[in-house]
Please model this.
Amino acid sequence: VTKNDTWSFSRDGIDRGWHEMVRTAELTQDTGWLGPQNTLYFRASCYVRSADQLNLTNEYNCKKETGYTGLKNHGATCYMNGLLQSLFHLGDFRRIVYAIEGEEDQDDGDETKSPQLIQALQNVFYKLQTSDQAVNCRELMKSFGWDTTDAFTQHDAQELNRILCDRVEERMKGTPSDGSIKRLFEGEMENYIECIDVDYSSRRNETFYDVQLNIKSERGQEMQNIYESLHDFTSEETLEGDNAYEAEGHGKQRAKKGIRFLRFPPLLNLQLKRFHFDLEKMDMVKLNSRFEFPRKLDLSPFAPDAGKYDLFAVVVHNGDVNSGHYYAHIQPDPDRGWFKFDDETVTPCSEYAAIEDNYGGSDLPVWNYFDRSPTELRNGHAQPRSTPSRSHNAYMLMYIREDARSEILRQPDPKEVNPRMVDRCDRDVRLAEQRRREKVEQQTKIKIKLVHERHLTTMTGFWDHGLIPFEKVYKMGREQLLRDFVEELSVEYDVDMSHIALFVLQYRTSPRQIRFGHMQPNSLFKNHIPQYGGAPHFDLSDPSLTVLMVLSRGYSIQTLRWDREESPSMADNLSQWSDDRAVMLVIKYFCVETKRIVTLGCYYLANSELLIRIVETGWIRERLQPYMDEEKVALVDLADCTWDCYEEFSEREMQARKVKRGVKSEQLYSGDILIWQVAQSAAREVQLDDGIAPVYPIHTVADLCANQVNSVDVTVLLHDSKQPLCVDGMVATGHWGPPGRVVRINEDGDGGRELSPEEAALRLSPADFARAKEMEIKMDFRWNVQHVSRTIYSKFGLTEKPKENALWLFHAPPSCTAEEALNTPSMREQTTLKELQRQLSYLSTTSKRQLTLHVVELTFQPGGTILDKGLCPLCIRFFDDRVREVGSEVIFVPNDGNVQDVLTEAQRHLKPEWGITGSLRALECADSRLHKVYRPDHPVRGLACFCRANIFFHCVRIEADQELTPGQRLIEIFHCDRSSQQAFAQPFLLLVAPGEKSGSIKQRCKAKLQVPDSEFKSWRLVRCSKSGSSRVHLKDEDPWDADVDPRLCLEHVHPNPLNSLSRQSRHNKPLTIKA
Model:
C-alpha cells in the first residue's frame, strides 16, 4: 500500500497523515502484514520543496513580529529591494549614507521635481529604521531619473549595486566621508604574466568591488562550490606556441598568465554567474545547477592574511533568464538568526532556508519504493531518472570578515550621526502626512478659483480657458449648497446677495466648447464637478472649479463698489436668474488696424432683446474707451459706424451673427463669446508675395482666425539625389554594429539634436553625397503645391527653371520610403498643403505639430512626362565587392530598350575609386531579398521598377559580375534578424561548390563583408526551405546543399531596427542612474 500527498504546514496544520492504510482485521502474521513479535515495517520518504514558506494573514505585522520593515514593489523592482535591504542592514554602510551632508532643498510641493539621490537614499534608510509600514521607493527611483518604464523593467541586482555605490562615492568626494565606500567594499587583485624560460614578468594591479564566480567554467566544467570557483578564477593559463607571449626584449616566450588576490575587503560581494551565454543555443540561459557555499568561508589560501569570513546575506533569484523574482535572506544580528526579506514581507527563516535551500540543483520528489525492481534497488538506481531543476537559487552572496563583523553590523543612531538629516527626514514625513490629509480632503471638499470680471478684461486674443486669471482660492464642501458660498462672498465684498450671479467653467459636448454656465444657488457643488475624466478643463490630480462672479450693472468691475447716482436697491436682481429668460455673454472687440483682440467684459440681457442693444446702450463705447486711451487699439469714431458681430464658436471657427436679430434667434447661451468689430467695406483681395505664394488680407476677425489656423511651420529637408538607399534602417555601409549616438551641431554653434539612427547610419556610408539641408519655413495650408515649391526654391536659394528642373516632394526621405512623390501628374494643380497633410497617418488635421517635407531637385518632373517622350528614368546604385553602396546616378534609357542599355549607361558613370571592375550585372532586391538577376537582353519594361514614381527607392543595383567555373553555383545569401526572423539589409550573391562545408562558406562571407571577429562570432549560417517553413542552423562540418533547392541566410541581430519598440524594448533597456 502506498500513499502520497503534498501539504503546507502551518500553525493550524502542524500534523498530516492518513486515516486508512490497512484494515486492522488484516493485520496478522498470516496475511504478511505483521512480522515477528507483531511488528510493522513502514518505508517513508519526504522532501521540503520550499523551505520556511509561510502562509501569512492580513493581520501579520512585519515590524511587530520581526522588528524589521519591508520595501514596496513598484512594478518589477524586487531586484532593487533585495539589494537595498542588504545594504541597509550593513550598519557601517548605513552610517556612511547618514553622514553625507546634502544640500538643503526647500520643499515647494512640486512632486514632479526629482530629489537628490543621497537625500532620497537617506529617506529610504531612515524610514526602514523608524517606520512601521512598508517603505515607498518612488522618491529614490525618481532621483535615479527613472520613469514608469524603468519601474517595470527588471535588471540585474549586482549591476545596480555597482552603479549605486559609484554614485554614492562620487557624492562623497571632498567630504570627510570620502573613501568610506572603498574602505568597506574595495579589494585588490594582480593580473600577471610570468615567463617560464626567461626572467621577465608583467604585472598590473586593479581594484574590485565584487568578484564574479563561474558556475560553469569556460571549458564547460560545472563548479561544485565557492572554493572550486575561486581556484578556477585564480587558475593559471600557459601561453605557448602560436599564443606565446611577446616579452619585451625577449621575443615570443612561454609564459604563465593568471590572477592573484592581494587583499580582500572587509565586506566581500560575490556574484554567482548563473546567467550564461550558450554558444549552442546562441542565447542567454540560466544555470540552475547545484552550487554550494559555506556559512563560514576561509579565504586564507587565496590571499595573504585573508582570514575567515561569515555569510551575511544571500540574494536569491527565482525564475529564468527572461523573468523572475529577487528576494534576500539576511542575518542582521547573529544572535537573532536569519530573516527573509521579500519586498513588503519580512519573516524569520531557518539557516537551512537561507543557505542549503538556495544551492540550486534538482528537486528530489518523493518516489514509490515498489515501482523499482529489486535490481534497481540493489544497484542504487531507485531515485527518479529525471528530476526538474530548481528555479530558485543564490545569485549574490555577501560575506563579512570575521574580525570586523561586530563593527560593520553595529547599528548607527541617526540622531548622533547627522541630526540635520533626522530633522529633514522628520519634516518630510510631516509634509507627506500633510499631503495625504489634503488628498483625503479632496474627497470631501473642492477648491474654488474665483474669477472677477476685471480678470477677464486682461485677456487678449482668442479664448483659452487655461489662461483665465483668478484672484483667490476657496475650499468648499462638495455637499455644500452654492447659496453658502454666495453668502460668504456677499459678506467679504460687501455686496448684496441678490446682486451676485455665479457662473462655472464647464464642458459642453454639443458643440464641444468650454464656456461659463450659470450655477443655481440651491444646487450642490458636487453637481458641478465633472463626473468623468474627459473634461479638458478639469484636472483630476488637482480638482478645482473656476467660478466667475458677475455683479449687477452699476458696480465698478475694478473696485466692486456701486458706481451710480441712484440707490443700489435699483440694481438688477440676479438671484432669480434663469437661463430661459436671460443670457450672460463674454464680449470682445477686434481692432482691424492693430489686428488685436481685447476682452471688454461680461454683458447680460434678456433672450428677447436684439444683439445691437449691447452697442446702443453705450456699453461697448464705455468699456472700449480705456483701451483707446492707452493706444492698445486704434481710435475709432463710435458715434456713427456700422458693426459686425462674430461668435467665437471654436478655436478654429468664427460664425457671423446678425446684430438686428434677437439673442434666442441667434441661438446664443450663457457663456458664449461674441467679438464685435467695426464693419469694413474693403473687398477681400488675395495677393502674391513677390509672385511666389499668396498673402491673405485680414479684414475681419474671421480672416484673423483663418490665418492663424492655416499658418504652419514646415520643416523642409533638401536631399541630394545621390543619397544612399536606406531600407528598414539599414544603409549598405559595411558597418554591422549599431550606428552609435551622433549629435548634430547647429550652425550657430549652440548644441543640436541627436541624429536619428537612420541619419547616423547614412554618415557611415562610403558614397559621396551632400548631407540633407534642413530649414523651417512658415507656410499656409491654403497654398497649393506650386506655391509650396516656389517658396522652397526661394528659401534655399535655388533657381526655378520651368521644363528644366523640378522639385520632388515626399513625406519621408525618398531613398527610405516606397511611397510616391506628392506632386505626381495624377495630383491636381490646386491640391493644397492641407490635403497633403491629411495623407499623413501619424498627424491629425487638428494637430499643431510640425509638418515635414522631404525634397529632391531633379531635371525632370515626377511621373509620366519623360515616359511620354519614350524615355524611362532609372536610379542605378553601384555596389562594390563588400556589398557597400559606393555611388548612384539617375539615367535615362529608351522604354523599348533592354538591360544592356542600362549596363552601358552604368559603365559611363563608373568611377575608379569605387573599385568596380570587369563586366557588370544588374539586379533588383525587394524586402531585403533578391528579386531577380537580369540577363542583358531582358526588356526595360520588364523591370520591377519600371514606371514607379519613386525611382530612388525602386532602383536597379549594379555590381561586378562573376564568372562561373564548371560545377560552381551562384546563390543568394540574405541577412535575417534573430528575434523577428525577418530579412534585412542587402542580400548578396556567392559562388559555392557542391557539398562545400558550411564553415568554409561562413568564413568566405566574413571575409567578403569584412565583419570583425567580435561581431561575427554571434552570426550563424541557416539553411531555409523555399517556403521558409523549415530552418536548420548549420554546423561548420555540415554541407550547405543537403536539402533540395536550399536558401542560405546569415542570422544575427539587426543593428538598427526602425521599429521603436525593438530599439527601446524594456527588456533591452540599459540600467542607468541619471542623477
Remarks:
- The chain is about 20% helix and 25% strand.
